[in-house]
Amino acid sequence: NAGVMQNPRHLVRRRGQEARLRCSPMKGHSHVYWYRQLPEEGLKFMVYLQKENIIDESGMPKERFSAEFPKEGPSILRIQQVVRGDSAAYFCASSPEGMNTEAFFGQGTRLTVV
Amino acid sequence: AQSVAQPEDQVNVAEGNPLTVKCTYSVSGNPYLFWYVQYPNRGLQFLLKYITGDNLVKGSYGFEAEFNKSQTSFHLKKPSALVSDSALYFCAVRGPSGGSYIPTFGRGTSLIVHP
Question: Which positions in chain A touch B32 (Cβ < 8 Å)?
Fold first, then answer.
């Protein structure tokens, strides 16, 4: 059973470009979470999705950021018009149904904005 | 709102000595508590969790954690540290925050085990 797959592992974008980060959850997992990690700041929750639904996006900036988890295919975190402050590691996690289940993490995508 | 505090940014311990990484939490209702480890340039790996039952939970790589409801703590422990345990450790809680049970993480504690 493959783990959570994220791609690309590293992404370099110029200011103003768009960044698309992909996440394929573990087989059988219907819940996907996106987090951003900055040095000295820990993991910051961004968005929680289930298939075709955004459940909670309270941690995601209102502008330039969007996320989706379509019926078919991976979950996508999209950042439009990137700025240097968007440089960070972005992690996706997935979990099965159930509030007491642990989340499994992908290896992350390290976004660098130049 | 739920939250997790890891009061130590860094913990230093000599190899062979016991280690403790501290975590306290705040959540309404019964908490589900987790510990994860992160090695450089990697994702988080699950170590152990507390759901209900015995307050002492055993997990991977010889780690264990003790749930203390009165102190709202869930400290990670290991009787004898290894140099290879050096990594970043995260405590997390799931609780009914807004009904969605989103995992909330602490800032992380860097564990350094000296030879």
Answer: 99-100
